[in-house]
Amino acid sequence: MPLYEYVCRKCDKSFELLIRGDDTPKCPHCHSQKLDKLLSVVAGHVAGGKGYTSSDPGGCGKPQCGMGGCGGMGG
Predict the structure, then answer these.
(1) What DSSP assignment string belongs to the chain?
(2) In sequence order, which residues have a C-beta less than 8 Å from that of residue 55 and are 6 or more positions away?
(3) Residue 47 and residue 60 in one domain
(4) Smaller CB count within 10 Å for the chain: N or C?
(5) Mind listing the pLDDT tens digit for each residue in 11-66?
(6) How far is CA 43 from its chain centroid?
(7) pLDDT value of residue 25
(8) Contacts with 12 (C-beta within 8 Å, 6 or more apart), sequence order
């Protein structure tokens, strides 16, 4: 059961939906089926089982930013 991110073309709201089988996704705000699927931020398991990390969309875009390498300072 994958979790997908969408934005509604009718009301411009962003949301996540758990899609099961042949379910047709619809906006939980206005119930429109005119949706665009968004690219999700990838989360990965950290070695040692201490939790998860994800890429920071506000960082500089370098891979190490997702691990706190540059602190999102744009370097």
Answers:
(1) --EEEEEETTT--EEEEE--TTPPP--TTT----EEEEPPPPEEEPTTSS-EEE--TTS-S-GGGGGTSSTTS--
(2) 41, 42, 63, 65, 66
(3) yes
(4) N
(5) 999 999 988 888 899 999 999 999 999 986 666 666 665 554 554 444 555 555 55
(6) 9
(7) 93
(8) none
